[in-house]
Amino acid sequence: MKVFNSGTVAMDVNLEKTGFFQGEGLKVMACIQNNSSRPIKLKYCFYRKHTFLAKGNRKVSTKDLLKEVGEPIPPSAEEKFTRVIPIPSDVEPSIENCSIIKVEYRLRLYLDVKYASDPEIKFPIVILPAARVPAASGFGFESTEPLAWGFEPPAEPTAPAAPAPSGMTIKNFSIEYDAINSRNTFTDGDTVNGRIVVEASKETRIQSLVFTAKGKARVKWTEYHGNHNYRVYWAEERYYDVKHILREAKRDGEALQVTVEVNNRSTRSVKPKFVLYEKKSFFAQGRRRVGTHEILKQKMESIAPGKETVTTVIPIPRELPPSILNCSILKQEYRLKVNFLEYYYIYIFI
Predict the structure, then answer these.
(1) What is the mean pLDDT of residues 52-78?
(2) Rounded Cα–Cα distance for residues 92 and 126 (Å)
(3) What is the mean pLDDT of residues 24-44?
(4) Which of 185, 214, 219, 249 has the fewest CB atoms within 10 Å around its CB?
């Protein structure tokens, strides 16, 4: 309950709640007591406040979104009002949990009193995303209205397809996601569902498929002081940075099963030895630099003279970086070396 007095004028205003969805009606209940000698009017103003913070500085801007004027209240009268103010459906939701950007809303009610200061009441209002409205087709959305921040929505919620390099078997590579409302917006706690589309011209072996998603906020503005002096303020905040390996040839931590057929024609027992190592190659200006590092060694039981087939399992360490085979200046490769009297090399993809 809020009460202001200006001479013989008083108002008592209440709201049912202070959190509303986009497009919802904001119900205001007011009681106005006019003991003055002039008629007065109750006015409403719903406005937005943008705040940007960077390097200890702040930039604030406000914009009136909706204004309304009530009926005149005659002198020496007391009247009660109940009014529903429609919240525009295209306003962006409130942002209150970011250290560099804030989006806030206020409802200001004030009495228009001639020849006197106007008493006013301000209510903080929280705008929540509208209830989810799936697209008619189950994917995408149709909207021609620009977003409140001044950006146009994309034609459909899909990332641009990556052009296929000449000679490659991948014809199309794109990311699609499902819209959860008509404005194609997501907020805290929402789940983004979608698809990764890979179209190949023939049967193709995919070594790995990694999905990376990043979300961040950035502010930047320029303040001018005179004709030639100015200062730029900027800041950035990261919300999330996630990475999912959707498919890979050999996952870190997976066991590598090796089967060896040994034909020992000597008069002594032999003991097979396995060495898993990495090979890094760097290319620049026609030169190459190569480095190798042994990751693990393992021995099998002795094998007597004769022919025998043995199997062993070699654990691949979880902390190994993935193989890199499609870069012209950097390669990350792995080898499994089997040692008897001779060396045998097996290519491993991590």
Answers:
(1) 89
(2) 11
(3) 88
(4) 214
Of residues 121 and 215, the one with the higher pLDDT is 121
Domain 249-348 part of CATH 2.60.40.1930: no
Q: Are 170 and 181 in contact (CB under 8 A)?
A: no
Tokens standing for residue 269: 């027992």
| Positive or negative: CA dihedral 76, 77, 78, 84 | negative
Give yes or no for a contact between 270 and 308, defined as CB atoms under 8 angstroms apart: no
Contacts for 243 with CB less than 8 Å, ≥ 6 apart? 210, 211, 212, 213
Q: What's the Cα-to-Cα distance from 77 to each of 4, 10, 30, rounded to whole Å?
A: 17, 11, 14
Q: Note whether 2-128 and 249-348 share their fold.
A: yes
List Cβ neighbours of 80 (8 Å cut-off, separation of 6 or more): 29, 30, 31, 32
**Residue 196 structure tokens:** 């990764």
C-alpha distances in Å from residue 261, one per residue of 272, 275, 304, 335: 11, 17, 13, 19
Q: Of the ranges 115-124, 149-158, 214-223, 235-244, which one carries the lowest mean pLDDT score? A: 149-158
Residues in CB range of 267: below 8 A, 6 or more apart: 305
Question: Which residue from 302, 303, 306 is spatially nearest to 265, judged by alpha carbons?
Answer: 306
Average pLDDT over residues 299-305: 81
Cβ count near 93 (within 10 Å): 18
The whole-angstrom separation of Cα 182 and Cα 175 is 19
Domain 2-128: state its class: mainly beta
CA torsion angle 214 219 220 223 (round to 10)? -170
Count of positions (residues) in the chain: 350
